[in-house]
Structures are given as structure tokens and as C-alpha cells.
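Lab notes, practical 5.
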Amino acid sequence: MFHIFQYQPLRLITQNSLSSMCLKVMLSRPVAFAQIWKSWFSSHSLLGKKNIVLMGPPGAGKTTVGRIVGQKLDCPVIDIDDDVLETTWNMSVSEKLQDVGYEEFLEEEGKALLKFSASGSVISLSESNPMHAAGMQHVKKNGIVVYLDVPTTVIMSRLKSKEMDRIVGLSLGISLKDILQFRKQFYKRWFDVRVLCGGDIAAEVVAEKVLDAVKRYQDSELETFISTRSSSSGRSTEEDSHKLYFSDVVTQGLALDGGLFVPERGLPKFTAEEWQGLIEATYTERAQVILERCIHPADIPASKLAEIIETAYGENFSCSKIAPVRHLAGNQFLLELFHGPTASFKDFALQLMPHLFAYCIPRSCNYLILVATSGDTGSAVLDGFSRLHDTDKQRIALVNFFPEDGVSPIQKSQMIGCQTKNAWSVGVKSDFDFCQTAIKQIFTNSDFTGFLTVEYGTALAAANSINWARLLPQIVYHASAYLDLVHQGIISFGSPVDICIPTGNFGNMLAAFYAKMMGIPIRKCICASNENNILTDFIRTGVYDLRGRKLISTFSPAVDILKSSNLERYLHLIANEDGQLVTQLFNQLENQGHFQLRKDLLGKLQQDLVAGWCSEEDCLAAIHSVYSTTGYILDTHAAVAKVVADRLQDRTCPIIISSTAHYAKFAPAILRALRIAEINQNPLSQLHLLSSYSALPPIHWGLLETLKKTGNGDHQVCAADMSALMSHIETLIQNHFM
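Output from the prediction step:
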């Protein structure tokens, strides 16, 4: 039987009356009939037998928004307070609360919710319903729970002019702000989708956002991924056979055609009001909101994503702000990205990504993660995967390839010291570019990967920034830095900032550009290179030329890179997703050692990016100068960015410099910059010497702990040979999984 739901709650039109009505409308007003049918079909296809359940704090507008959504869908609207609780109790909610008290009220409210049943309706919960677990489980079984997330300051402002005798818990003498903060944990536990609601946003706009959020929740088909080397028709041969979703690209890492995965429809956009709603939020709250919009709940439900984010950032960072912004001098600010367990910006992705990976992979297969590092990634990925649950460690192992003589002594000590029973470091007698290229070639070697799958039941995956799950968390800290400047009163929202990032593999810079695309008002993206300045030359000329270049070992090894992998994603973007062009460019780079952008693409690039580079002497001089004037020690990479920022900024707006690692990781260079004559070669002694300076920031606790470890001094060393690397991989699989 077909039913049409009218706006009046629980009022139905039967099939017979529908037929009679339809006949009359069809004869007299065929256009009107089409509109009625379209309205019914829209409601039916969106809801079916499911309910839309609106949840949020008092003053969030649940009742008003619910009525508007009901009108738009032409379906029943039920307000739990008015239509269920007060009808059941034969008294007002405020009277019931005064009559039975706080604890018993919650229980009575939950019992009423357990007896309630509806389908195909819009339901507005009370503000305290989410505090009763059994009641919420009952409602959630047949509903899509939509969290109307309104900033606490906005709610408090709204409630000033209203009677608050219906707010559960307020009579206990607890402040309204504390009640609202306490309730958030329950809202976060139950929701399926979140709708950000700013200060002056109209209820009609919120209702539209609710409908959009529900449609997105029900249709994961819209959020697919393609390779940067997909054909101009939109999909590669691989992708034609089946669509790829977030969980697929996290697991697979690199596309089979050698390209990198990107969202087919691009990244989500946030409105200015939505960003402003996050100004008061903590870092983890910002991370959850941003990542929810980038990861479809069909891949990772919001509640699980929240759990993963809390695990990643809850206790593993030494600073409660996670990624604090510190004023350096003048209009320059430092984004400190080294407070994670291994003291570099890599921790932001690699405390999160292992848990995303473990959740997304099928339980029927073992996985070996391959990583190439120029320094910081190695210890970060080893530490991140070491924090997985033991059951996950049994089916996930990791091998980290690094240039044996191309990282700092402390970085090398970290990578060796962070090895565990399922994660190993292998030094390669070559540079980072060889390591990275070798991994890409292994992934596209179908004979080898197929052999590992058939013979050992093991698939390969990547944890470098070529993996999409590595890039997403980096977007968060660039957005958060801007919001922190607004929160501190340095700028008002909408005012521009410049950013300057020490850049090698282009992942960090790409994440900042993505933040800009999502609505953060970033003006200039400044790429800072060291003496391996191929990116600077490319941005200035449009010519990417490896011919005759040799990698130079510098004081800033994390950007000692000549082949910038994530540049491919950026070029795919500005080339309007022309995969054929991207394929042509990078095939030419691989085969001939160079390529040149068309003039129109170079123009687009130069609108987005500017670049400069820093010599070794200028790097050390910047460290000494900043310490002498401020007492703050920059690491070598931040010093590179500082030098370039000084040259390229126009001082008309703040500039945020990414401080990507703790200075103690590069102790010999820092001690040299501070003009220490004799430097002990023991890394632990170097750290103790630096700590005697009592400089800012203090010595990183994680580095000291890692270097104090004993018994983890061994690691394997491999020749710069593809066959040797593949042999190492097969041996490690045999030892761990067999």
C-alpha cells in the first residue's frame, strides 16, 4: 500500500483517496500533479521507512528546523518534548523535571523514548534524550541521526532571552556553559551526520543543509576516487571495472596506472559561517569536523572516526593545543608541528593513518606497508603502526626504506630505535629519490605483487604521502592555524594570510593549497627549498628538469628531494583533471628527465605559488640570528622557510611559517649554528648539550626516550638494486606472516 504523508503529524492518505485526488488533479492541473508526485517521490526516496532524527543542544533550533524539513518532504513531524513526553506524562516537561528531579527525569524520559515508534518521519529529540543510551539505540535503529552542531557561545547567546526551566541539569547549580560542554560527548556518540550551524544562520538554510547531509549519507556513490592519470573520458581502465572509494584508496595507496588517487568530485567546501563556527573548537574537534566531510560515513562512520581521532591526538602529543601557533617576530608566526611522539609534522598523519588503514582493510588478507623516507617519515610511521591493537599487528607489517647515509644521526637512531616485531627499517645505499621511485615501481609490478598475494596471501600498501590518507590530516593543521590567529585576535575571519613551507615532496604544500580550496583565506603559498631547488626553478620557469642534477646532502634532509611526488596531484588539478596530459608529463620526466608546462598552466601555477631557496650558510645564519634575538631555536627546515619568507613576503598580512620538526633532530647543524666549537658525535650527548641552553622550545621528550633505548641498534642494509629490495620484502613477509 502506498501512503502519502501530509505535514500534520501521523495523518495519512490511503491509496483509494490518493487515486481519487490524483485523478482530479491530473484532469484539472497536470503540472500541479507532476509537482505533487515529484514531492512525494523525493520524500519517499530520501526517507523510505527511515526517520530523520534531529539532535542537538537546547537552542539549536531542532523543532523549527524539523518543521521546515517536514514541510519540504511532506512527511510527519514529531517533536519528542511536545508530542511524546508531555502527551505521555499529561504535564509539561518543566513540571515533570521539577516533580521528579534530574536523575529520575532522565530515566522517565528514556522509558518514554523506548515505547515510541515511527517511520518515514522527521523527529526532533529533546536536548537530553542522547543521555539515555537504551532510548537512543532504539531511535537510531530506524533513523538517520543528524547533529545540529551550534557553537557554545551562540547557544548561550540564544538562550539569554529564553526561559530555561526545561534544561535538564540547570537546577543543580551547574553553569549553562558546563552543561553544554558536558552534553557534547553524548551528541558525538550518537550522530550519523553533522550539520554545522553558525550564529545568524536562518532555520530555512539549516533545513536545506540537513537534507543535503542526509542525501550525502545515503549516497556514497558520489564520493569516488580517480587516478591522476585517468583518461580524459574520466576513468582509467582499472577504474572502469569498479568504482574506488576512500577505503579502497587507503588500502591500495598507488593507482595501478602509476598515478595518485584524488577525489573525483574534488574536496568539500566550507562556508565562512561554518569555519567561524570552529574558531572556539579544540584541535581534535576541528579535525573531526573537517575529516567527516572528506571521508564518507559508509567508509568510516562518524562515531568510529571520532574514536580514531581521539586515539591519535588525545594523549600522544606533548602540547595540549596539538599544533600551536607561536608569534615569532613582526608579522611572522610559527606553526609548531613537532609536538607529536617522534617530533615532526609527519606525526599528524601517521598517528591517524594506521588506524584508518586497519579499519578499512579486509580481514581476510595480510598487508605489508612499504615506506620510503628522507628522514622524518620513518620514525613517525614506525611509531604510528606500533600503536595498533595486537590483533591488527598480526595482519599488518611495515618495512621502512631510508637512504643509509642521507639522514641525520638522530633521525637514523630514531628509525632504528622505533623498530618493533611487525615494523623494520632498512637502510638503502642510495638517496631518497631512489627509494621512492623503487617503491612506485614495485607497486606497478603486477607480476611481483600478484606473486605475493598468491604465494603468501599478502598485499602491498603505501604509507608515504602518495597515500591519500596521509594528506588529509595535514589539511587540518593548516586550517587550524588560521582559525587560531582569528581566535587570538590577530586577524578577523576573512583577512588573508600567507604561508611558507619548507618543501620537498610537495605534500605539505599541497595540503595547505587544499585548505585554501576548502575556504581558508590563504593568499600566497610560498615554497621554500634548500640547495636542492628544483621546485623553485620549476615554479619560476615551468620547466621541471632533472638532467645534470645531483642530489645534495644538506642540513635540512627532509627536503633533499628532486622528484616531488605530490606535485602530480597539483598539476592534475590545475590541468582540469586532464589525466592524459599528466601521464604525458610524468612519462616524459621518467624517460627523458624533464618536462615543460604549457604557458597557460604556468600562469595558473604562478597565481597559486611563489618560491625561493636558501643556501646552507643562510640557513645556519637564520638559526643563530633568531636565537640571539628571541631565545627561540628554529630547526633547519624552519630556518630555510624563514629565510625565504623574509625575501618574498610583502608584510601586508601575517605569514605562517611551518616549523616541521624539532630542532634537536638536527643537533649537529644546530650546535654549529649556535657556534659550538667542539661537538660530541654521540646523539644523546648532543641533546643534553642543547638542553643546557634552556631555549624555546624545550628538548622534545620523545627524542630523549627513543635515544635512551638500548638493544635496538641493529638494522638491515640493502644495495640500491630493485631485485635486492624485492628479495628483502619477500623475506620479511615469510618471517612475519608464515
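Observations recorded by the TA: The chain is about 50% helix and 15% strand. The radius of gyration is 28 Å.
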